[in-house]
Write a structure and sequence with these properties.
Layout (H helix, E strand, L loop, with lengths): L35 E7 L5 H8 L4 E7 L4 E3 L4 E3 L2 H8 L4 E2 L7 H8 L5 E5 L7 H4 L5 E5 L7 E2 L2 H7 L4 E8 L9 E8 L6 H24 L15 E2 L15 H10 L7 E4 L2 E11 L13 E2 L2 E3 L4 E9 L5 E2 H7 L14
Parallel strand pairs: 1-2, 1-6, 2-5, 6-7, 8-11
Antiparallel strand pairs: 3-4, 7-9, 9-10, 12-13, 13-16, 14-15, 15-16, 16-17
Helix pairs in contact: 1-6, 5-7
């Protein structure tokens, strides 16, 4: 964690002046004496633990949670609130669900809560300047070691790249994409076996701890943000369904990382003449005997032939079926061995 001299002047205002406090609507929460009126912005599960820690922090008066509107989820398209929405209601915190936060009515709805600080984790929308300019700014918990893996899918990008280390960065947001100055960092070593859900769950706990120990010093002006370095910037984009297709012309190690990175969305899969097969667990076997004599894309007894060896398939799910071991699928569909994946239509 980076700690430096104060960058905020002592006594900086944390909300409305005291003489205007009586103007607040009577149903708005005020919090503990000396606490700072705060809004939390988040939607996905990464932000849940941070929200809980923020709600219990003695320096914070959590006056509202901003999250995405309910949307269809799952195969049955059941309209459901976001994980953060559900948690906020459990905590009895007011919930706002503006479809577009940058729209004038979305901004007005948030500012009506009179916040002095915004904290964001896994929200998924751009934050307007009016919220970035709050008295104590807008802080973002980002699950990578910035400036590496800015953007929409940093956890997947970390696994795909084979990084041996990741972490959480607490930054003060500016109008760029994850480009604001760094407030604090917590580093985490990786084993090279993590799936995206496992890594997200672990980093969510790290993020909550980092926020809990940083928020007091930040409000006191004891944390000095430092600019992100110009070197080492990478950008991760939003994932698309087609990204999940396993390309046998790539190396087995790359495909194994893809299988771990793209869970649960967009998944990793290949097409066969009998339908799609989703791969949940795989192993790179780069020196499989005889594999180099086979054509990449051929389905072998133990997996998929790739550009440099074999992607050993361990757990799969055929279209319309349940998850099962690859050996079980081969026993039920022996004709699949020796066939080839269906190539991408151009």
């Amino acid at each position: 964690m980076s700690v430096g001299p104060a960058d905020l002047p002592a006594g900086r205002p944390t909300g409305r002046p005291a003489e205007l406090a009586a103007d607040l609507p009577p149903d708005l929460p005020t919090g503990r004496p000396g606490s700072v009126r705060t809004v939390f912005l988040g939607s996905g599960p990464f932000g849940i633990e941070a929200l809980r820690r923020l709600a219990g922090h003695p320096r914070i008066a959590l006056v509202g949670v901003v999250t995405a509107p309910p949307r269809p989820v799952g195969r049955r398209a059941v309209v459901s609130p976001t994980p953060v929405d559900t948690t906020a209601r459990e905590l009895d915190v007011p919930v706002l669900t503006p479809p577009r936060l940058r729209a004038p009515d979305g901004v007005a709805e948030v500012l009506a809560l009179d916040p002095a600080l915004a904290v964001l984790a896994d929200y998924g929308q751009l934050v307007p300047p009016a919220i970035l300019g709050l008295a104590h700014g807008a802080l973002n918990l980002h699950p990578s070691l910035l400036p590496r893996h800015r953007g929409a899918s940093p956890i997947a990008a970390t696994i795909l790249a084979g990084d041996r280390e990741t972490g959480v960065t607490l930054l003060r947001m500016d109008e760029g994409l994850d480009s604001g100055p760094i407030v604090a960092v917590e580093r985490v070593a990786l084993t090279g076996t993590e799936t995206a859900p496992e890594l997200e769950a672990g980093l969510a706990v790290v993020a909550a701890e980092l926020l809990a120990r940083s928020i007091g010093p930040w409000l006191a002006g004891a944390l000095a943000p430092r600019p992100q370095p110009a070197q080492g910037v990478t950008l991760s984009r939003s994932l698309r369904r087609e990204d999940g297709r396993l390309d046998p012309m790539r190396a087995a190690g790359e495909l194994e990382r893809q299988v771990r990175a793209y869970q649960p969305w967009p998944g990793s899969w290949f097409e066969t003449g009998a339908g799609r097969i989703v791969v949940w667990r795989a192993e790179a076997v780069e020196e499989q005997p005889g594999a180099h004599a086979a054509t990449p894309g051929m389905i072998a007894k133990h997996g998929l032939v790739t550009a440099d060896g074999l992607l050993g398939l361990r757990e799969v799910q055929p279209a319309g079926g349940r998850r099962m071991g690859w050996d079980e699928l081969v026993r039920g569909r022996p004709s699949i061995v020796g066939s080839s994946v269906v190539p991408v239509r151009q």
